[in-house]
Amino acid sequence: MNFYDSEKMSDLLKPHGYQLDNNEDNADLIVLNTCHIREKAVEKTYSELGRIRDKIKLRKEKTGKKSIVAVAGCVAQAQGKEIMKRSPWVDIVVGPQSYQNLPELISKVDPVKNNKYIDIEFPTIPKFDHLDCHISDRSPSAFLTIQEGCDKFCTFCVVPYTRGAEYSRPLTSIIDEAKKLVDSGVKEITLLGQNVNAWNAVGKDKNIWGLGRLIEELAKIKDLKFIRYTTSHPLDMDIELIEAHRDIDKLMPYLHLPVQSGSDKVLKMMNRKHTSAEYIKVIDKIRDYNPKIAISGDFIIGFPGETDKDHQATLNLIKEINYSQAYSFKYSSRPGTPAVVFFNHVDENIKNSRLQEVQDLLRLQQMEFNKQFINSTQKVLVLKNGKKNGQYLGRSPFNQSIYFYSDNNLIGSTIDINVTEAFQNSLTGVIKPNKNI
Ligand code: 5AD
Ligand code: SF4
Predict the structure, then answer these.
(1) DSSP code of residue 369
(2) What does the pLDDT look like over 191-235, one tens digit per residue?
(3) What kind of architecture, by CATH, is found in domain 377-431?
(4) What architecture is the 127-371 domain classified under in CATH?
(5) Atom 14 of ligand 1, nearest CA residue
(6) Does ligand 2 lie within 6 Å of residue 160's CB atom?
(7) Is residue 358 within 8 Å of 301, Cβ to Cβ?
(8) For the purposes of burial, counting CB atoms within 10 Å of the CB of 380, is it exposed (0-12), middle (13-18) or buried (19 or more)?
(9) How far is the CA of 192 from the centre of ligand 1 (A)?
(10) What is the CATH number of domain 2-119?
């Protein structure tokens, strides 16, 4: 979502004379977009701000030039004034719900007066109404935010506080943006939301639509070839969405469905509102409707009170689901969340060894998953050049990176690739002879 927000900020600033520059040394404006989900992000923000002051701001000042530094995103939202206190060279602090005001804030900054601006409001008029700006060149695969915020209040998570209450973007605004993206050459759209499958809005027939219906509508856009969404909550996997995985060819067979733990005791402490059996039931149902679907997830290791038995339950659940790929994180205590005051924090060494065990198992499953594709043919969207000469990187329907070579520029095209080798994080292949789509 931060990637999407960053692209939007850059689109917003273009009409005001700003252009993206790969060389930060000469930047007139630096926007540091930040994430607050785990602890390291805050410290990273401050050390990055120190680097920006030394490497860009002070150096430019020596030559008589000024640069503006803005901090955006969830660290900005959570830290607010504290950022100005700890890093007084920052000119603007802007939260994820108010970055549409960035052009105005920038125009007000006066380097001589050294005035500073903080905007971390949750505006009553949704920011999307102000973000209908020109879409600059995108990769063939683009993000599109359809939902923001969360009302689930998992006890470890800052999202309900930094991104606010659940908000679903209206249908017409989503369709308009999707069409604009496709008109600008985009072939694949990933629908985004902290709780993307909680999206609902008044549909064309005046009934309330869920994500499944939205995907059905988006699939009607002719030149849109691939649709994905992330990230979902197990409780919001409704039947329409599950049916969409069976019925809509453009919806890719990949589902990122975090569970966080395999222990019912821990799930309860996390306020996940479901048991491990209920999670497994949801996955079983999805696999009934689409047996090939690749399942991904998120795990938090070492939540307060997690015992060896709970950890075993997580390993068992991973074995039962058999993930194509998944993310795992050590529990990180976040200020302001209910879990901060929980007792029985897990020893750091135990956390590390449990994380290692979970990641080893997930790596094994990912390798096994990738190996199945050797000698198969995959329909691949070509995304960009690889690092080597003539090499291209594409994405398989199952969200795997596929590398192959070609003499022609194929970026943006859909092409059949015969998979030759499988690795931990990618596949390699060759273009299927005479069968390019
Ligand atoms: N500690 C560790 N991981 C966390 N996540 C969210 N909050 C925390 C936390 N406090 C992880 C969850 C979530 C993903 C986006 O980040 O697994 O699904
Ligand atoms: Fe955070 Fe996801 Fe839980 Fe919402 S559902 S509180 S975003 S982990």
Answers:
(1) H
(2) 999 999 999 999 999 999 999 999 999 999 999 999 999 999 999
(3) Beta Barrel (2.40)
(4) Alpha-Beta Horseshoe (3.80)
(5) 298
(6) yes
(7) yes
(8) buried
(9) 17
(10) 3.40.50
